[in-house]
């Protein structure tokens, strides 16, 4: 039977309705997918911000992965960062497990990170161990007291090179250089190319040159330091504790070498070099061409530890004596009097002394009356 016009119209209307419904379904599905994608994008960004590696792995595995290239770049950098941190942690743990006497200090990881980037994980462990024992040993003792002694060289170098600047800085203690010298500048210099260049220099010279480098940095800022008002010591310390930006490394390296040649450690004033112990890395690693063994370095570490304990006990004893000086003084007088009394009796002088005392009393009373 032939289709009637009404049936054809009905079929056409149904087809249009089906198309519209399909379009609505597609549009609805597209909106749902878009909403899911937006939700996933937010989840990826949040995981990157919080460095949630497990969540990033889950999101990367799910349908669509990281969805967009810009998100992939962020996520991959986070995963790469996590991988580097894992390697860094492994190297540090290996060294500290092999040499448990070494004390970790804040900023040590900055040094290890430089070696890890240059040498890779397989070679950096041994390099870090050697660096720790042969160049950083003074900083990995149970106390930072040896590191503070290193800092005392800075004002001595400045005094030798620039008397006027030395006078201006005389009221500021050199703790401003602790962070940089402790970490071989790895904590304070952010550019990898700069710190890698600086490591080339520092590791080719004896350890004390790191101190000369900071003195060179201070001297390079002479003009701005002298312009700081005398009544602003906090500003002076702040300036001294921050490395200049930009950092002219080549000029500073040349200046440090010149300072070292012009004012060698032995010539520095106030006997600061003599105060550095003989077992310090500043003195045991002076000849960079001489090969040193790890075993010898470990023995030096224990020597330094014993010496450090003796110095600490000495300071505690002096502090105790000073804080109880009045009581100790009274006891000392009493002990002295008691000892003298015993000595007088043993010598048989007590009767003579009493006789003289009686005569003196009688004469004194006679004059009064």
Fold and architecture overview:
The model has no long low-confidence stretch (mean pLDDT 84). Among the domains are: 7-76, no CATH class; 136-292, Cyclin A, domain 1 (Orthogonal Bundle). It has helices spanning 5-50, 53-61, 69-98, 108-119, 121-134, 145-151, 153-161, 163-168, 178-182, 192-202, 209-220, 222-226, 233-241, 249-262, 281-284, 294-323, 325-347, 350-368. The chain has 18 helices and no strands. The radius of gyration is 38 Å and the shape is elongated. It is an all-alpha fold. One of its GO terms (cellular component) is endoplasmic reticulum membrane. GO terms for molecular function: GTPase activator activity. It holds the Pfam family RabGAP-TBC.
Describe this protein with a few key phrases.
mainly alpha; Cyclin A, domain 1
């Amino acid at each position: 039977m032939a289709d009637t016009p009404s049936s054809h119209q009905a079929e056409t209307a149904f087809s249009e309705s089906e198309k519209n419904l399909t379009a609505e379904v597609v549009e609805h599905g597209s909106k749902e997918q878009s909403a899911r994608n937006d939700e996933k994008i937010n989840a990826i960004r949040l995981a990157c911000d919080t460095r949630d590696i497990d969540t990033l792995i889950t999101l990367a595995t799910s349908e669509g992965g990281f969805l967009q290239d810009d998100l992939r770049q962020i996520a991959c950098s986070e995963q790469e960062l996590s991988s580097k941190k894992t390697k860094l942690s492994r190297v540090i743990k290996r060294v500290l497990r092999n040499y448990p006497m070494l004390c970790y200090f804040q900023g040590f990881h900055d040094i290890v990170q430089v070696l890890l980037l240059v040498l890779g994980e397989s070679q950096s462990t041994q390099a870090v161990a050697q660096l720790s024992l042969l160049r950083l040993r003074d900083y990995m003792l149970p106390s930072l007291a040896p590191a503070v002694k290193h800092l005392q060289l800075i004002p001595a170098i400045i005094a030798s090179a620039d008397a006027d600047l030395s006078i201006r800085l005389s009221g500021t203690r050199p703790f401003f250089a602790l962070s940089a010298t402790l970490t071989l500048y790895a904590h304070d210099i952010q550019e990898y190319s700069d710190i890698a260049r600086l490591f080339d220099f520092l590791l080719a010279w004896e350890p004390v040159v790191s101190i000369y480098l900071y003195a060179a940095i201070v001297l390079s800022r002479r003009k701005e330091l002298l312009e700081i008002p005398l009544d602003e010591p906090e500003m002076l310390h702040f300036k001294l504790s921050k490395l200049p930006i930009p950092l002219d490394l080549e000029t500073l390296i040349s200046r440090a070498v010149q300072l070292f040649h012009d004012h060698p450690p032995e010539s520095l004033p106030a006997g600061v070099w003599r105060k550095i112990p003989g077992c310090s890395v500043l003195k045991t690693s002076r000849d960079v061409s001489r090969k040193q063994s790890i075993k010898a370095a470990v023995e030096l570490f224990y020597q330094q530890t014993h010496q450090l304990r003796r110095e600490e006990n000495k300071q505690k004893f002096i502090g105790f004596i000073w804080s109880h000086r009045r009581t100790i003084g009274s006891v000392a007088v009493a002990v002295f009097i008691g000892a003298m009394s015993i000595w007088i009796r043993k010598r048989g002088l007590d009767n003579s002394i009493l006789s003289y005392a009686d005569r003196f009393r009688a004469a004194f009373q006679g004059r009064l009356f």
